[in-house]
Amino acid sequence: MIEVRAMELGDADAVSALRVSGWRAAYAGIVPRSHLDAMSAEEDAARRRRRFRSPGNRTDNFVATDTDTVIGWAALGPLPEPTAGELHALYLLPERTGSGVGRLLLDAVRSRSTDRGFHRLYLWVLAANTRAQHFYERAGFTPDGAERVETYDGVPLRDVRYVSDVVPPA
């Protein structure tokens, strides 16, 4: 049975392993292979534990589990605009893509956004990641015209920003 709950410190290793495998699956052929190969779940977990313990941490992390195995993760944080939040991350084990787990995590993020007084959610997606764009569009997000460029191992890649009301139109 799939459960979505707040992430706990003990989930850090599983979340980091999931994030690295998620990046390698989702961004193969988009992000340079050298960057993907250099990603370390161990280093990511150490950073994640430090952030998790930080007294100034204002990020809400959620995990989706199936029989106590972490199969998905999402992170929500505030923006300078007090009524808006940002979906920083939503990753699944690659074999769980398309299973509905992403939607369950997004529902948890929206619920927490309401609790935090957010009326809008923003997120960034690599322009070449059409699969993620379709997922977010089906969930009520639309591109708002903002773009940025991030560089991975010397290769500039364009991100597009998406926005949605916290409670999307039916």
Please explain how this structure is put together.
The protein has 170 residues and is α+β, with helices and mostly antiparallel strands. The chain is built from 5 helices and 7 strands, in the order E-H-H-H-E-E-E-H-E-H-E-E. A hairpin with a 5-residue loop joins strand 3 and strand 4. The longest helix is centred in the N-terminal third of the chain and has 15 residues. The model has no long low-confidence stretch (mean pLDDT 94).
List keywords for this structure.
170 residues, alpha+beta, Aminopeptidase, 5 helices
In CATH, the homologous superfamily goes by the name: Gcn5-related N-acetyltransferase (GNAT)
Q: Note the total helix count.
A: 5
Structural class: alpha+beta
Number of strands: 7
The helix content is 25-40%
By CATH, the topology is Aminopeptidase
CATH architecture: 3-Layer(aba) Sandwich
Question: How many structural domains?
Answer: 1
In the CATH hierarchy, what is the class? Answer: Alpha Beta
Low-confidence stretches: none
Q: Tell the overall outline.
A: globular
What is this structure, in a nutshell?
The chain is α+β, with helices and mostly antiparallel strands. The chain is 34% helix and 35% strand.
Task: Compile the SSE list and pairings.
Blueprint (H helix, E strand, L loop, with lengths): L1 E5 L5 H15 L6 H6 L2 H13 L6 E7 L2 E10 L5 E9 L8 H15 L4 E7 L3 H9 L3 E11 L2 E11 L5
Parallel strand pairs: 4-5
Antiparallel strand pairs: 1-2, 2-3, 3-4, 5-7, 6-7
